[in-house]
Protein 1
Amino acid sequence: MLGLYIRVLGLLKPNAALAWTLALANIALAAAQFAEPVLFGKVVDTLTRGDGRPDASRLATLLLLWLGFALFTILCGTLVALYADKLAHRRRQSVLAEYFEHVLTLPLSYHGATHSGRLLKVMLQGTDSLWGLWIGFFRDHLAGFVSFFVLLPLSLVMNWRLSLLLIALCAVFAGLTTFVMRKTEHLQSLVEDRYSELAERASDTLGNVALVHSFARIDAEVRGLRTVIDKLLAAQIPVLSWWAVVSVLTRASTTLTILAIIALGAWLNGQGLATIGEIVTFMSFATLLIDRLQGTVNFVNRVFMEAPRLREFFAVLDTVPAIRDKRGARALSHVRGRVEFRDVTFHYDDRRPAVEHLNFIAEPGEVVALVGPTGAGKSTALALLYRAFDPQHGAITVDGTDIRDVRIASLRGQIGVVFQEGLLFNRSIADNLRVGKPDATLDEMRQAATRAQALDFIERAPDGFEARVGERGRQLSGGERQRLSIARAILKNPPILILDEATSALDATTETLLMAALDEVMKGRTTFVIAHRLATVRRASRILVFEQGRIVETGTFDQLVNRGGTFAELARAQFLTPVLGTN
Ligand code: ADP
């Protein structure tokens, strides 16, 4: 827990100078506050001493001192609080941005296994916790610690008998807090798990709202969410009850301590062992200390409640991307587009290889079609090319350079990917196109859109290029989404292109438009296409036939059909029949 707290404070490092200044100022402030009770006691003693005629000049000096201290603490206190707030807010946003960047660099395999809803929740709540702890650190925690180290020894010096009561009170607080922390630690981390589950589930359902509606699943989904909420509450309620017990017990012991100080003080005063002023000072000390103790319990409670959340946050931050730039990796540029797979084998986890002993060469400008049943390893093979994963054996080269020796960003800069399900941001069409080329002019975008057969539908909308496409482009049809992502690839103009053809059947017009768009985008690039259409396979200069992770045949369409092997069979089943049927 302490390690976690230190790490939280460590995140203030980029503003270390300001943070240290604030911390020291806080300690000074906390120390200055002890002056008040001491002065109070002295005032009382001055008033009660003598024979009814207090020493006026001494009294005036004391009151002036008191006023000075009070004004000083108020002014400094406000300044420190203001700067602490600003610092905490600023750091929170920077840490959030760092987390966001880190999460984006994590490989697809990580994102495949971790829901975006969970990552978002961890980001928002984690930075919220950090912010709360920083604010608390500057406002209360430091002052609390100072109190213990100054107040207790000071009170011991002033009157050790009364002081014992305060020490006993501290012991009670510490004991209770530790006990309850131990009792509820496990439950609290369960609560956090449930919160993550809740975020994941809610965002998953919202992301699939069309499915929810079409299967009339609103009730079922709400019920599912309620189940998670019930589990969350089942873990949360006992934790709350335990801390309520702490609250009752600590408050009760506070009242008892105050009463005991008065009783013991009166008795000591009778014995001549304590002055009235000392008793008054002690009462103030006790109030201050109790205030701090309660603050500390709240702080411990807070760290404790937030700990699982922070652990989750740090766990994501500590995930090291499996695929990183090698030390000294250079940029890949001026690519001609010769791609070679040399005995490439890759498996996800410990399972049977998804692809095995892949060997092939694609010459610059060639169109290579990958065909085969689903699950045969076609997408995996191409994901290896842009390093979504690295193969366990073998090597992939671009223009003779092993792709592990070049910077990932520069490799991906040379490869365009058109996904089966045209992936789009919830931004304007122009913004989505500029993903391919950030500085593209409207003219360039229009040209690309024309070549991708997308200009017509873009200009049909009243906002044209400024029209928003909705979350994941849901305001467009499947064919439109695809043509937009083809236009995006044309703008990027990469020497190597990966195309995952849509499997869904399109109407004849859209199909024609799409084929024309594809012809445009493939021109002059080494293209790998996961082919589902006869027309595409026919256009390919080479066909790789995949079966269970291996390439079982290669050749041109005619060669393979004449061979009468796997491809010929596949072509009959997969390509020829449906296409002939629709003709
Ligand atoms: P294809 O593109 O030919 O349909 P894939 O490359 O998608 O085939 O899949 C090859 C094999 O790898 C399949 O058995 C599939 O279940 C498995 N696979 C694909 N993606 C993943 C993944 N992200 N994690 C684990 N296994 C996967």
Protein 2
Amino acid sequence: MLGRVNHVAIAVPDLVSATESYRTTLGATVTEPQALPEHGVTVVFVALPNTKIELLEPLGDTSPIAAFLAKNPSGGMHHICYEVEDILAARDTLKASGARVLGDGEPKIGAHGKPVLFLHPKDFQGTLVELEQV
Ligand code: CO
């Protein structure tokens, strides 16, 4: 079912400062900020030779990462995103095996313009898993 790691996401309290750390201290290429109101976050991507790092900052009062940042005020690893070929087939297989899909269970369009779903961290070793159809 799983393909490549598409990205690892890190929640940050200050996207400007996090972008500066990756650009200047680590010498990486970082994209311009992209607001995703439907997901309650603003994101940038750090381009690496083998994958990407997504830096997430809360957007709006009901951001799903607000509680995470309240527990991890300096930021922290938030989720890992795996690529799948067919997100609906993957969802149906996972649900049939008892895994919980977050939200209403319907894919939303993610930061790359492709459908994404999130799986409950308690079903996957305490890690929030994002699936992205590629
Ligand atoms: Co992500």
Protein 3
Amino acid sequence: MSREVKSVDYGLEKIFEGAQDFLPLLGTDYVEFIVGNAKQAAHFYKTAFGFQSLAYAGLETGVKDRASYVLVQDKIRLVLTTPLTAESELNNHIVQHGDGVKVVALWVEDARSAFEETTKRGAKPYMEPTVEKDEHGEVVRAGIYTYGETVHMFVERKNYNGVFMPGFKEWKSDYNPEPVGLKYVDHMVGNVGWNEMNTWVKWYEDVMGFVNFLSFDDKQIHTEYSALMSKVMSNGNGRIKFPINEPAEGAKRSQIEEYLDFYNGPGVQHIAVATDDIIKTVSAMKARGVEFLSSPPHTYYEDVPNRLGEHMEIMKEDISVLESLGIMVDADEEGYLLQIFTKPVEDRPTLFYEIIQRMGARGFGAGNFKALFESIEREQELRGTL
Ligand code: FE2
């Protein structure tokens, strides 16, 4: 995948006042999952989500204790890693959390500086700056812990032109399903424990220089049964957005509590990926077997013109098509957005995906929270975890 590093197109202009400049982030570099069977997980992401084979590391490349498959779709890179031996420390991650996200890697200009600036502000180190080399150049990586066992890895690849990273070889496959139009990671959401949201908001402010640019309290995010609170953290150029959720008291068990119980602590709840054509993307994903949450009721779609107001004029999508696919609509002052959520993609009710198409709106679909959570609660009811 070509990711040319040119200083002219960094796009590091500050769009959020108050964000600090000590940690310039160019984008999401990769997301690494620890899974029970990486070979099969890779097949799922190719077949169902339209990812392409990119790189591989394992026994054939001299790695003895793990196998990793790297998948790509436009700017999104997933790394699926599994332990090969009983002694591997990765096993404990699977025992504790099931399949889940271990690393949210951030693309930086200078990994050593990113490590130094964040650890001096209180980040717990995960990996000291490390240089990896091969015939294509060098990559410098360093990592810090965030919530739970999740890690932010800083990746500096300006002196590298290989397919992914030293230690990996190109993965050529005879099986190459078409992409479904997923383009980049829009945001990644973390679930943290009771009374921990503000601790992590402050951590992202102090350690990473992020700003809190949107907040939702339990008065705004609730159903008849459950509630949660959420604060959206962003870096200065808006490329990295991490909403953080915390459960709130409700009559029944909220989806956040369910997550925390099954993930055995804080972790990544959902990955939102952007598309330019959500109808095409979601139709393809459904045809390939991806399961989405059930559609909101018909009354929800009758209310869409009200909700969109003046943005109705620019809306190109046919509401009945959105309804048939279960795609939700929300608007803010700047435009509208279309979004839909998958069911969890592993047996534990933990990580799921959001597919989002932004038509000017910068929000997160607050107007859909109630319909969304009611849909999740119908699933929780079936699992006996509400
Ligand atoms: Fe989201």
